[in-house]
Write a structure and sequence with these properties.
The protein has about 350 residues and is an alpha/beta fold. The chain has two domains: about 230 residues, Spore Coat Polysaccharide Biosynthesis Protein SpsA, Chain A (Alpha-Beta Complex), CATH 3.90.550.10; about 90 residues, UDP N-Acetylglucosamine Acyltransferase, domain 1, CATH 2.160.10.10. The chain has eight helices and 29 strands. α6 crosses α7.
């Protein structure tokens, strides 16, 4: 089998963080989501992976390279315009050939990996397998309606009146019949070739599509709250460890479920887990509370933070109020000044949110 990762899209729901970074490279528990997807596919025994890219293709290619960091071979497949998931499949036919493959959206995080799913599909006669999960708001997803025997009756993309609460998770498995399907469907009302229409074509034309209902957690990291939720889940599941080259002084307290990455320095501070502190980050006279990920080369001094994500080279210093439920972008500075007049001073990007008690 081969792997196909979709890593295009502008990530508008994560503005302003994604003005300057591909959404798939935003880290969860200090690992870019795209890297987690590559690992999940590799752990399922697949070493040939295609990555479909869009406007942020150069950044994705620079970050992933040839795949050697994960022991896989990566081929990049440019998508000129975001014309739908089925279009991404269509332009990947030369890479896939006649192989069966798994398609994974590069901004999705799922509990438990996909190894068992891949093994199940690889040893089956099914033409496709799709992953479904129950969601509270199915109108925002592709939705599957099952019959009394648990087989797929029909698929609908973002229905106004959903026939069920079973949404398609961003993981699909196909054989080469999917290429005939994507060539025989028409663009939807929003001008895209929908993967739900392609799978429905398979069903209508006698192909076997097996539904797998996932009961664990699954998150599409499309919005800041989704990123924080994914971060919570991953931090909970991690095996935490303190690097031998991290430095913790005697005045500090580091909890049991805390990961300190190489070069992290903890000075007169308290770190509660689950949390992770990145390479060469300095925490001084500070408190880092549970469910916090601080990326590489950050500085936290005389401050408190909890249930948040800080990207690399950001700083918080001298802030008396605890920072919570926040995402702080690269090279951002949150600080305090004693100069008069007392006032709030800031530079905020488009679509930023700033809350003051």
């Amino acid at each position: 089998m081969k792997g196909l990762i979709l890593s295009g899209g502008k990530g508008t729901r994560l503005y302003p963080l994604t003005y300057t970074r591909a959404k798939q490279l935003i880290p969860v528990a200090n690992e870019p989501v795209l890297f987690r997807v590559i690992r999940a596919i590799r752990d399922a025994g697949i070493t040939e992976i295609g990555v479909v890219t869009g406007d942020t293709g150069t950044e994705i290619e620079d970050a992933v390279g040839d795949g050697g960091s994960w022991g896989v071979n990566v081929t990049f497949i440019p998508q000129d315009n975001p014309a739908g998931l089925a279009h991404a499949v269509k332009i990947s036919e030369d890479f896939i050939g006649n192989d069966r493959f798994v398609m994974f959206l590069g901004d999705n995080v799922i509990q438990g990996g996909i190894s068992s799913l891949i093994e199940q599909f690889a040893h089956s006669q099914w033409d496709s397998q799709i992953v479904l999960t129950q969601v509270p708001d199915p109108q925002h997803f592709g939705v599957a309606e099952l019959d009394d025997d648990g087989d797929i009756k029909r698929l609908i993309e973002k229905p106004k009146n959903p026939p069920s609460n079973l949404a398609l998770v961003g993981i699909y498995m196909f054989d080469s019949s999917i290429f005939e399907a994507v060539k025989n469907i028409k663009p939807s009302d929003r001008g895209e070739l929908e993967i739900t229409d392609a799978i429905q074509w398979l069903l209508t034309n006698g192909h076997t599509v097996h539904p797998y209902i996932h009961t664990g957690w699954w998150i599409d990291t499309g919005k800041p709250l989704d990123m924080l939720s994914a971060n919570d889940h991953v931090l909970d599941e991690m095996v935490h460890e303190v690097s031998e080259v991290a430095d913790v002084d005697s005045a500090s307290e580091v909890g049991r479920r805390v990961t300190l990455q190489p070069g992290a320095r903890i000075i007169n501070s308290t770190i509660r887990g689950p949390s992770i502190i990145g390479d060469n980050t300095v925490i001084e006279n500070a408190y880092v509370g549970p469910y916090t990920s601080v990326y590489h080369d950050c500085v936290l001094k005389n401050c408190e933070i909890e249930h948040s994500i800080m990207l690399e080279k950001s700083q918080i210093s001298g802030v008396s109020m605890r920072v919570v439920d926040s995402m702080i972008g690269r090279n951002a500075i949150v600080g305090h000044t004693t100069r008069l007049p007392k006032a709030i001073k800031m530079n905020l990007g488009d679509y930023s949110n700033f809350w003051m008690p």
